[in-house]
Structure formats: structure tokens, C-alpha cells
Description:
Strand content: 15-25%
Number of helices: 12
Number of strands: 12
Order of helices and strands: HEHHEEHEHEEEEHHHHHEEEHEH
Amino acid sequence: MNQTTPSPRPSRVTTTMAAVAVASRQYGMLSWEQARDLGLTKDDIRRLLRGGAWGRPHPRVYSVRSMIERSDPAMRLRTSAMAAQLSLGPQSFAGGRTAALLWGMEGLPQWDGREVHMVIPALGAQRHVQGITLHSWYVSREEVTTVEGGLRLTDPGRTLRDVLLHVDRETAVCLMDSALNQGLITREDIPQLERANRGRRGCVNVRRWWPLADGRAQSPLETRVRLLCVDGGLPPTDLQHRFIDGHGRLIGIVDFWWEDLRLIGEADGVGPHSTPQALARDRQRQNALQVWYPDVRIVRFTWRDLKRPDYVLSTVASAGR
């Protein structure tokens, strides 16, 4: 009689390494079910938690702490969304503001580092989970996509449809501009998005805001300055206007151009455009513009100026004169 010798259980080191490999593909996160299927026991996990190598952001969800990127807000958001997804189960996905930030849409406040917005379509599935804002919207399968790392979220169009209903006009147009500028949606998508939102609270306002969207805007600051000027009766003639020198060479591309006023407007935000190298390029470009276009004037606006709409409008009007 032949007896089959049972296969030896993989060593704890081997199973832990396998679990870490899975977590590395999920932004440092791992569920209890995944760890168990790889051969880890509850005692193994307790040792890892006690030793500080692993954390537990949610019940039955674990983080490999050495893999958590804390200095990058975008990566921290992905990590938190993945932890929420593993906690809520295979029917859940990121939506609303969290999905908008994951897609890189600009215009919302920076993530607070605490709450993520997740969707569980089944109405009866909603439950309280610390650190997660739950929604039970009906979302079709075609409106959910999976990105790198297995992270599930609403597609850009559905994300916009949900977020626009809960923000003010300025924020909404910033998000619209950003989505258009990045190619997340196209102009041709807008009528369908507007129709799909009919009947939802806030949809009438959003319908009025869509005509204000312009994918040429490259930052929320540009969008907000433009809206101030539109509201004040001084809409720019062109955005991202190109200036060339007498030899046909590009001098630069400016944020706003008022043709009748012979006026250039620039939105000076913080970030890459405020580095010494960028400031030096701006000075060179401005000098070249003054050489080749001596009748043109330049005005510049910052985030602080948005708090003084009258100042922005009077600056444009008086500079043009």
C-alpha cells in the first residue's frame, strides 16, 4: 500500500515574502484572505503586527509599512483607496472626490489624508467604516474601470458627473477644464454627460456651467482668473495665445490675450513655475515680447489676487487703456 507523504508547509519566511510580493503590487496593502491563501496563519500575522513590520488600517486589511510612501500625497491616496477597497470587498470602488483626485483632475482642495470616498452599489451593503465615506449610487459596470495595482474607480466621465453636483461653480469649471485639458473627456462627451445627470439634484446648475469650460486652461488659477474676467465683462479674446518674433520663431505662449486691449495676462501659481529657472525664462520671454511687441502690456495675477475681484478687473481695464 502506497502512502502519500504530505507536502511540507512552506516556511514562514517563504510565505511572508510571497505576501509582501502581492502587497508590492497593491500599494503596500494586503487582505486577510490573500495572506491566508498564501499560507500565512493568524499567528504569523500577529507576530508581524507586534513587531511593527505590518500595520492594520482596517480590520482584516494589512499594510507592509516599509512600502508605504508617506512623502507623496498622490501615492498615499492610492494606498488609502486600496486599503478601503480590500476592506469593503470586490464590489466596491473609489468614486466622487477620491476618484477625481486619483484621475489627477485639478480644482479640488488637497486631500485631507483621512477620508476616502468609496461606492458600494448595493443599497443594503452600506455600513460605517472609519476613514471611509460610503456611497450607494447606482453605477453601471461600463462606468467602472481598473487602473494600475488593481485599484477600481469610476471612469472620468462618471467621476465628473458625481463630483460636479456637489461643488460650487468655480470648482466645477476648474474640474471641467482640467478633465478636458488632460484628455480625460472630450468636448463631444459633454452632451451625453449632461443628459446622464438629468434628474439628479444640482444638475440644473451644472448644465449652466458646462458652456464655461475650456480645455486650454492649464491650471485652476487660470480658470478662476478667467471666470472673474468673464463675470466682470472683460473676457479674454484668446487663451494660450502664441507670439512669434519677426523671424517666425516662437517667443512664448501666454495664458490670456485681450486683442482689443493689446494686453497679455499671466497666472503665476506656485510650483514648477515659481522655480528660479522658470522665473528666468519668464523674464527672457517678457523682454523678447517687449522688443517685438512694444504696444503690448503685461499683467500678472496670483492666488492672493482672487480674493480681490475688483482689483483683477480694474487692473485689466486700466492696463488696457
